[in-house]
Amino acid sequence: MKEIAMILRFVVIALIYLVIFRIIKIMYMDLKGVRVKKLKEFALEVKGAPKDANLGSLYLIHKVMTIGRNPDNDIVIKDPYVSGNHARFYVKNDKLFVEDLNSTNGTFVNGKRISKVEKLQEGDIIEIGRVSFKVLE
Amino acid sequence: MEKLEKSILKNIYFIVMLLFLILSLYRGSFEIVPFVYGTLSVILIAYGYFVIKKYYPRVDKYLYIISVFIVEFGLVMLYRLDFQRALKQLIWFAIGIMLFIFILILFPDIKRLQKYSMFFAIFNLVLLTMPLLLGREIKGSKNWIQVGSLSFQPSELAKIFMIFYLSDVIRKIKDYKDVLKYSIPIVLSIAIFVLEKDLGSALMFFGMFMAMLYVGTSRLRYILSGLVLFVLGGFFSYVVFDHVKRRINIWLNPWKDKYGAGYQICQSLIAIASGGLFGTGLAGGHPEVIPEVHTDFIFSAIAEEFGLLGAIALLILYLLLIYRMLRTALYAKEDYSRLVAVGIASMFAFQVFVIVGGVTKMIPLTGITLPFVSYGGSSMIINFLAIGILQKISEVGNEDA
């Protein structure tokens, strides 16, 4: 029994160094700037709009995207039913969220008015004022 | 990438099981208990990894992977030394991982803590003075608080509080006057440590302060004046305090009194030497003759049974962990989180340096724990708390990448 253990002890040390070597290798790749995993991206497709002007347009969401009537928003909707700063979309941990910024007429996800923050999935329909969007991945 | 991580984790699980196999082989008979113990620890690791991967795919997972690998070294060694303690340590490990996950889920964005820096400074001092009033002397240092059967080392928690305090004030430093003003809590803490005879923590606090000051201000002058003060303070305490003098004399020549004051360090050196290059093998040596082998001297036990190669492997793992922490600091988005990350990295670095340097007689020995390896609840929990905070910073930092 002890003889096997004596041999195994060398094996363990070799294995420990192997693991260290593998960790170092990955860190080296990281230093060289190999981007291993891309950030997940989401997009919004315009499904319905009062004037049908922007129907089918795509909006890419990188990190944060705000929607409202004020011109400093990322998406500006000139619609009286939309509040000045209406809602905010953001990506966190590869998941898309929508946050209602206390708008007057509310933000609806699949027909239900949301109170604050809501997680979104592909295919969800979001209504803001008279405009509706569909979530794409 | 995820595949690589998983296969590295699998390698680690394999190594753990192999270590427990060696342990039971050495004892002559094939036992089942070591395997149950090993499996439990592996399940804990796998559970923690699963939660991180599922809910926080953007965080730096290597902080976790390297930490738990280091923990396993400690668990195997403790199991070999003292089964009762090993069981307790496994419970502490479980609590540590739970706390780590809680921090990821519940802890607010680090930036919000910025406002409370004065609170952190005051609480830090309160924690440190508590043992002077309530505590009792254990193993020559008065830095423990006892509540019922649990004893707790407030200096562990105080380190984290001090990092939060320093991260906020260091950014405000403009000239020498500011340095003096903001370093008052640090100087007080170090003075308390010297009174409590906890010299290792004093050295660590000083080292952390210098590292953060340099990163935060990038002025060499502050560091040089700090070092001059350190030398003066060290000389002063050598002359005034008996326990400091004794420590230094033991360090200079432990063999003079090898059955008395120098007993610990002599046994530690003998153990390290008898390990040789490849070690005596688990359960093949006699590390149990070293006093305090499960806490302060666990590195000597590892050096004896895993050999020089095993001990160096452990040090490389610490190096990689600290590199990974500094990388988190580099990628952090604002100065406050960056300084917190640097503070935690230097905390680990100095802690490893002080204790490994101490047991190998490179610097005077002062009893502090080897992070993640030594037996002890407060140390294990605080280390996982620190890793959790860094993980949180790396999550925020990575979102931009």
Question: Can you walk me through this structure?
Answer:
The complex is a heterodimer of chains A (137) and B (401). Chain A is built from one helix and eleven strands. With 137 residues, chain A is an alpha+beta fold. Chain A has a six-stranded antiparallel sheet, with no helix packed on it. Chain A has a five-stranded mixed sheet with strand order 4-3-5-6-9, with no helix packed on it. In chain A, a hairpin with a 2-residue loop joins β10 and β11 (131-136). Chain A is elongated and about 85 Å long. Helices cover 73% and strands 1% of the residues of chain B. Chain B contains 15 helices and two strands. Chain B has a two-stranded antiparallel sheet with strand order 1-2. The longest helix of chain B is centred in the last third of the chain and has 34 residues, at 298-331. Classes of the chains: A alpha+beta (137), B mainly alpha (401). The interface between A and B is large, with 31 and 42 residues.
Helix/strand order of chain A: HEEEEEEEEEEE
User: SSE order of chain B in H/E notation?
Assistant: HHHHHEEHHHHHHHHHH
Our count of domains of chain B comes out at 1
Average pLDDT confidence of chain A is: 80
Quaternary state, please?
heterodimer
CATH topology of the largest domain in chain A: Tumour Suppressor Smad4
Strand order of the largest sheet of chain B: 1-2
- List the total number of helices of chain B: 15
Percent range of helical residues of chain A: 10-25%
Low-confidence stretches of chain B: none
**Helix-strand category of chain A:** alpha+beta
Helix residue percentage of chain B: over 70%
CATH class of the largest domain in chain A: Mainly Beta
User: What low-confidence regions of chain A span 5 or more consecutive residues with pLDDT below 50?
Assistant: none
CATH architecture of the largest domain in chain A: Sandwich
Can you tell me the number of structural domains of chain A?
A: 2
